Amino acid sequence: MTIMKNATDHYRSQVGGELMSIEVPEWETTVYFKQYSNFMTEQKIIEYHNDGKLAEALVETLIQKALDEDGKKLFRQADRATLLREVDPNIIIRVCTAINQGKEEVEADLGN
């Protein structure tokens, strides 16, 4: 096996893991998310964060990572303006915190 094959096999095994979730009673739903994502998913979130656009970074996190129980995205890019202007920011923060904490917990378990 090559190092690239080992690296991609490892990533696939992590991405294919169980979905985590957070109950969001205000939205009458459960938001699911994966513990891992790739650089393509993280890139736009990081760009917003580095530019000091924290609200946009949180909304991008929701758009990219919030899933239904079947693993399908709950939000689309077309939802961005509505999420920024018409949705309680405290709920968005709570959901994104759960998503990011899930990722941090996994990294801590791995010793990273």
Notable traits:
mainly alpha, single chain, rbstp2171, 112 residues, two-stranded antiparallel sheet, globular, disordered C terminus
Could you walk me through the main structural features you see in this protein, from its secondary elements to its overall organization?
- With 112 residues, the protein is mainly alpha-helical.
- It has a single domain (18-110), classed as rbstp2171.
- Helix content is 59%, strand content 9%.
- It contains 5 helices and 2 strands.
- It has helices at residues 3-15, 39-50, 54-65, 80-86, 89-110, and strands at residues 20-24, 29-33.
- Helix 2 runs antiparallel to helix 3 (54-65) and helix 3 packs across helix 5 (89-110).
- Residues 106-112 have low confidence and may be disordered.
Report a brief summary of the structure.
The protein is mostly helical and 112 residues long. It is built from five helices and two strands, in the order H-E-E-H-H-H-H. It has helices spanning 3-15, 39-50, 54-65, 80-86, 89-110; strands at 20-24, 29-33.
Output the number of helix runs. 5
Radius of gyration computed on alpha carbons: 15 Å
Main beta-sheet strand count, sense and barrel state: 2 strands, antiparallel
CATH topology: rbstp2171
The helix-and-strand class reads mainly alpha
CATH superfamily: Phage tail assembly chaperone gp13-like
CATH architecture: 2-Layer Sandwich
- The separation of the N and C termini measures 24 Å
- The CATH class is Alpha Beta
Strand content: 5-15%
Count of individual beta strands: 2
Shape: globular
Count up the domains: 1
